[in-house]
Design a protein that fits this description.
The protein is mostly beta strands. It contains no helices and 15 strands. A five-stranded mixed sheet has the order 8-15-14-10-11, with no helix packed on it. Strands 3-2-5-6 form a four-stranded antiparallel sheet, with no helix packed on it. The protein has a four-stranded antiparallel sheet with strand order 7-9-13-12, with no helix packed on it.
C-alpha cells in the first residue's frame, strides 16, 4: 500500500497500530486487520515509528521524541528550567527524569519547557516524555554538584 492509502477503525474494542516504513522512497503503511478505508488526509506518518490511534480524541499519536536538551546539565538541587526540542509533544501527559515527575509546559509540538527535580547524586539521568498512548524515546540530563 502506498502513502495515499487510508483506513478507518472497524473494531472499537482495541487500539490500532500503524507500522510505517519507507520502501523505494515511498512511505508504506501496513494497516491492522481491524481497519478499512477512511480519509486521514493531513496525517504525516514518520517512518520507523509505530503510531497509535487515540479513539477518544480521534487522532493518531506517535511516541514523543527528544532531539535536544538545553541546558543538558544542572545542579542536583534541581529547579532549573530546561527546554526540550523534538517531535510529537502535543498531547504530552508527563515528563519524567529517572521516573520522577517534572513540572512542564508544552510550547508547541516541537518544544516543552520543564523544571528539573532534585536528585540525591551526580550522574546522567533519563528524561522521558509520554502521551496518553505511548511512552517516548529517552534522552539524558546530567546532574552535577
Amino acid at each position: 500500500m502506498s502513502g495515499a492509502a487510508s483506513w478507518a477503525v472497524i473494531d472499537n474494542s482495541t487500539d490500532i497500530v500503524l507500522n510505517i516504513v519507507v520502501w523505494d522512497g515511498v512511505t508504506q503503511w501496513t494497516p491492522p486487520a481491524n481497519c478499512s478505508a477512511m480519509d486521514i488526509s493531513g496525517f504525516s506518518p514518520q517512518p520507523g515509528v509505530n503510531w497509535r490511534y487515540d479513539r477518544a480524541n480521534d487522532v493518531f499519536l506517535c511516541p514523543p521524541q527528544i532531539y535536544n536538551v538545553n541546558p543538558s546539565q544542572g545542579p542536583v538541587a534541581g529547579g532549573d528550567s530546561v527546554t526540550l526540542t523534538g517531535a510529537n509533544f502535543t498531547g504530552a501527559t508527563s515528563v519524567t527524569i529517572n521516573a520522577i515527575e517534572c513540572a512542564f509546559s508544552i510550547g508547541s509540538n516541537t518544544e516543552i519547557v520543564m523544571t528539573t527535580p532534585a536528585v540525591s547524586k551526580d550522574g546522567q539521568y533519563q528524561i522521558i516524555v509520554s502521551n496518553s498512548l505511548q511512552t517516548g524515546y529517552p534522552s539524558a540530563f546530567t546532574y552535577v554538584s
